[in-house]
Amino acid sequence: MSTVPHQTNTGPVGGAQQFDQDGLAAYLRDQGRPFQGPLRVEQLTGGQSNPTYLVTAGAERYVLRCKPPGALLPSAHAVDREYRVMRALADAGVPVPQVFALCEDPAVIGTAFFLMEYVPGRVFWDATLPGLDPAERSALYDELNRVIALLHGIDYTAVGLADYGRPANYLTRQIERWTRQYRTTETERIDSMERLIQWLPAHVPDSNETTLVHGDYRIDNVIFHPTEPRILAVLDWELSTLGHPLADFAYHVMAWRVGPDEFRGIKGHDLASLGIPDEAAYVAAYCRRTRREAIADWDYYLAFNMFRMAAILQGIVARAMQGNATSPEALATGKRARPMAEAGWRQVQHIEG
Questions:
Q1: Could you give the maximum distance between any two Cα atoms of the chain, in Å?
Q2: How many CB atoms lie within 10 A of CB 162?
């Protein structure tokens, strides 16, 4: 069984991920969080971007999220934005961890970080949810759908996020951004990526909807209640911004179009027997919740997200080669950039017939 609680999936802190624990202890005390005895720090494993730690301070437990060490791409690993958006959403209905403090001074522990609450619960690393019965799987997927629809309905101005991004031309700007990121981290030529870089900006849909978007909404980026089909916390807001809700939703639904060997997908599984809705039913549920008749240009949004994920995976390869990747599996994960780009180009070929 590969479903494990997020907070128990820990390991020792080693190599480039070590930081000044004495500095953290002093910071906690300065923040009015006194404790007895030494800190206990364990690294939460499974993520590929910002190093995340479980910190036990006396009777209290916290989660610490940091920028990785070493040279970083511009605008990447934005722990300040993660902190800001979770703080803004605290009373808006979207389940997020409570955040306690943001420290942008690298002199404290060696890098910028923020501190948030420890949320006990379940995180499912395998999207097929082995070990559960079909009714449980169906309920968990319905909850995933409910929460992303809820997020896209938030009045971002009312929660203080009117300046959290630019409200128009999201897709064009994202294509430009991820093309730059990809070129910065490119280690080999990927023909499908070159085709996507040419095709996507020339075919952007004529739609400028703007909502708050998560940017990395997946089943393994939420914590479920220990026994109920209820999301307690949405995690990993590093890529959040103001953007197009359908692009954000298509990133989430991309799991239906790719297999486990490409990137944590469910393509190829017998979804009906598992109790997991098929893509059409899942999209229809989102449309009902967001009061849409249908989604135009759906395959474009999927192709865009496969391009974007390929660029992200290429960045993971580059960090692994530099020696400052968060996960020990980073190199293997990053090698999926090519098949992801190829999957994106297949979507384009489907659009063009």
A1: 66
A2: 12
Overall pTM surpassing 0.90 (yes/no): no
Contacts of residue 53, Cβ cutoff 8 Å, sequence gap at least 6:
13, 41, 42, 43, 44, 63, 64, 65, 66
CATH number of residue 186's parent domain: 3.90.1200.10
226 and 142, same structural domain? yes
Q: Are residues 132 and 204 in the same domain?
A: yes
Per the listing, tokens 């923020």 go with 114
Mind listing the pLDDT tens digit for each residue in 82-111? Answer: 999 999 999 999 999 999 999 999 899 988
CA distance to 116, 279, 308, 344, per residue, from 258 (Å)? 33, 12, 14, 10
Structure confidence by residue, pLDDT tens digits, 169-178 = 999 999 999 9
DSSP character for 135? H
DSSP label of 231: E
Would you mind telling me the total number of residues written for the chain in this entry? 353
Residues 18 and 154 in one domain: no
